Amino acid sequence: MTTWKEFTEAAPHISAVFARRYAATGNLCLLATLRSDGYPRISPLEPRMFEDELWLVGMPHTTKFHDLARDPRFCLHTATVDTQVSDGDAKLWGVVRDVTDPGVQQRFAADLFDRTGFDIRGMAFDHFYAADLTGASAVEVGDGSLRVTIWKPGEAERVVRKR
């Protein structure tokens, strides 16, 4: 599996598109998980990058985190309202692992407070998910074509153009 740091080094173009869209939406993404009946669920999420990892952490006892506890597979898509996709978009997929180390959780909470003022310091987490990436893609439109950049672990980014 691939950490956030390893992903940004192996897929610099896709990670740049992701970072640009992530920042443009105030850190909002859409998380796809699998419900217990096998159907997909799409939920808003503000993922965080911390200590070289991508973290999928949020309000406790939500169904999206129950989904991940049952089936760790996910897809994370940058949010967009631009039907022309003029600034691109990016998708990441992978699996989560639940990190139970209270030291990591409290460092994360302190960092979140320092960056945003949102105070969850001292709280216990029911799930604290780090993302291991198994693939990614970015879509950009320009010059009369669609450019899709694709990445898989162990491979270089590759571009497919569609007219």
TrEMBL record:
The lineage of its organism: Bacteria, Bacillati, Actinomycetota, Actinomycetes, Pseudonocardiales. Residues 27-112 form the Pyridoxamine 5'-phosphate oxidase N-terminal domain. Keywords: Oxidoreductase. GO terms for molecular function: coenzyme F420 binding; oxidoreductase activity, acting on the CH-CH group of donors. The keyword Flavoprotein does not apply. It comes from Prauserella muralis. This is Pyridoxamine 5-phosphate oxidase. One of its GO terms (cellular component) is cytosol. PANTHER family: HEME OXYGENASE HI_0854-RELATED. InterPro entries: F420H2_bilvrd_red/Heme_oxyg, Pyridox_Oxase_N, Split_barrel_FMN-bd.
